[in-house]
Write a structure and sequence with these properties.
Layout (H helix, E strand, L loop, with lengths): L1 H37 L6 H19 L9 H30 L1
Length: 103
């Protein structure tokens, strides 16, 4: 039993670190998109393709996370919040690219 509890604790720590790193990646991308909104010359075709690719990968990673049975309500909320942020990130990206193309 002690070994199982230790294993669950290790998995929980790894899971939390994974979510923390995904959150950092989303934050960085949010900042990049906010910067691109201010400088339309950043929105090149190459930038748009690579950014969309990164968002797609983040989307896959975030929505592939299964909530462990031992997850706390705070852990669950972090995952749900991250999913909302990725969705909002894609919306912000499409608004940025639409604005840049119109300019």
């Amino acid at each position: 039993m002690k070994r199982q509890i230790e294993m669950e604790n290790n998995l929980m720590l790894a899971h939390r670190e994974f979510v923390t790193q995904l959150t950092a990646a989303v934050t960085q991308l949010e900042n990049d998109i906010a910067e691109a909104k201010e400088m339309t010359h950043i929105c090149t075709d190459e930038w748009c393709r690579s950014t969309e690719s990164v968002i797609d990968e983040l989307h896959k990673a975030v929505y592939a996370i299964s909530e462990p049975r031992w997850a706390t309500p705070e852990d669950s909320e972090r995952i749900h919040s991250l999913r909302r942020r990725v969705r909002d990130l894609y919306l912000s990206f499409t608004q940025t690219t639409t604005t840049a193309l119109a300019a």
